[in-house]
Amino acid sequence: MGNEIVERRPLPRPRASDGGGVDPDRELVLRWRAGDEGAFADLVRRHERRVFRLLLRMLGSREEAEDAAQETFLNLHRHGHRFRGDALFSTFVYRVAANAALNRRRTLGRRHAREEGFARAQHEGTALTSAPPDPEHAAAQAERRSAVQVALLGLPPRLRLPLVLYDVEGLAYPDIARALDVPEGTVKSRIHRARERLRELLLDAGAIGAEDLRP
Amino acid sequence: MTHAEVRSDLGDYLEGDLPLARRALVDAHLDGCPACASRLTTLRATVDALHSLEDPVPPPGLAAAVLARIEAGEGRAGLLARVLASVPPNLRMRIAMPGLLLVSVAVVALWLRPDPQPPAPARTSLQEALGGSARVGASSPPDASIEERPASPVVPPGALDEALRDPASVLRATAALDEAGRDAWLAGLAQQAGSRERTLAVARALRALRDPRGPLLADAFLRLAGLDASP
Ligand SMILES: [Zn+2]
């Protein structure tokens, strides 16, 4: 009887772990290690998008994400020579970015982050959508996106980080485990808990609910 | 299955991670339980909502800003230059010689390191790789003392006047220091301030910076100057 209203198919999973194959950044990392600063510039350009995306979702504001992204790449420049190539360089980049996010939230303090992050997330969730074909639909969509961002900020960083790495960045469990330096089982259970918590926050905010329960 | 058992399986169910037999049991329960079925639906909607977040475009100047800061000495190679810049010229050579030696030893060591590294557990080496800056499971890196820690930063004369004229200079001077280095630098600055008025003026200027680090520096500065940070 429930078959008509409940979608049963598993979620699509485009993610793949870095188990095999050559690191696409290997060449650039080697050149940089050998003293070629131009190679580092290429690495920055190659990774800025994912770093900025992760930090925007973690921090909720473009301004803070930009500051933290700069910090990430400076830290990468300072410490990246110790990267040994036993994980993907991109995993290493995520790790440095994750540290920048946690660090920044700590230094800014909870109160500041909550008050300002909220307001900005709300503002930017609506301000950042590109020109819509159907303004009404687009406005609703923007509102929902900003509600999702606000709800994300309501999760503790411990849960938010693996969730964003999994559901926004599309990393596989083993890579998240490497990036966060926690066991894979912990990553998995945190992602499940984070989704549960986010579900409640979105229900409370009215961002999901009635229309999702219809076929 | 109980509702609770089904609910604790919904995450794996959604990911397609449940063994087939277990999945069949959950399916059977969902067929007869609208409450659990709607829970699955809202969980799926939650994940869909995350997937529908837009892919943001980074600010166009991001890479250029990073490279400019590295150029200005905030990256790895610039550390020695930065320490030297804060030291009076007549002392520079005396510090520079051993410093240069250390750096060249480090560079040679990097060159000599065989490229495909012997296999090591990924977690340990990533942890080491981040060293002092790691917040998730930090450990002290073996070679950190060579390059990462300027012993104690020297505050150049006139730094306080510059801080009053251009408070962002404090940001620049402390940007690459670790917490201890930053505190040492701020303490030196506080000494230069001399009076309570000048100390408070610097703190106010720092607080007014557009940069989020401004207020933090202001608090640390007041603390190190022996003044309470609270208004
Ligand atoms: Zn049930």
What percentage of amino acids of chain B are in beta strands?
Answer: under 5%
Q: What are the low-pLDDT stretches of chain B, counting only 5+ consecutive residues below 50?
A: 103-152
Distance between the termini of chain A: 13 Å
Would you tell me the overall average pLDDT of chain A?
84
Strand content of chain A: under 5%
Number of helices of chain A: 10
Overview of this structure, please?
- The complex is a heterodimer of chains A (215) and B (231).
- Chain A is mainly alpha-helical.
- Chain A has a domain at 19-108: RNA polymerase sigma factor, region 2, helix turn helix motif (Rna Polymerase Sigma Factor, Chain: A).
- Chain A contains 10 helices and no strands.
- Chain A has helices at residues 26-33, 37-59, 62-79, 89-108, 110-127, 135-153, 157-168, 173-180, 184-205, 210-213.
- The longest helix of chain A has 23 residues, at 37-59.
- The radius of gyration of chain A is 19 Å and the shape is globular.
- With 231 residues, chain B is mostly helical.
- Among the domains of chain B are: 3-51, no CATH class; 126-138 and 147-224, no CATH class.
- Helices cover 67% and strands 0% of the residues of chain B.
- Chain B is built from 13 helices and no strands.
- Chain B has helices spanning 3-15, 20-32, 34-51, 62-74, 78-85, 89-112, 122-130, 144-147, 159-165, 168-174, 179-193, 196-207, 213-224.
- Chain B is elongated and about 75 Å long.
- Mean pLDDT of chain B is 72; it is low at 103-152.
- The chains are: A mainly alpha (215), B mainly alpha (231).
- The interface between A and B is large, with 87 and 74 residues.
- The structure holds zinc ion.
- Zinc ion (ZN) is lined by residues 3, 6, 29, 33, 35-36 of chain B.
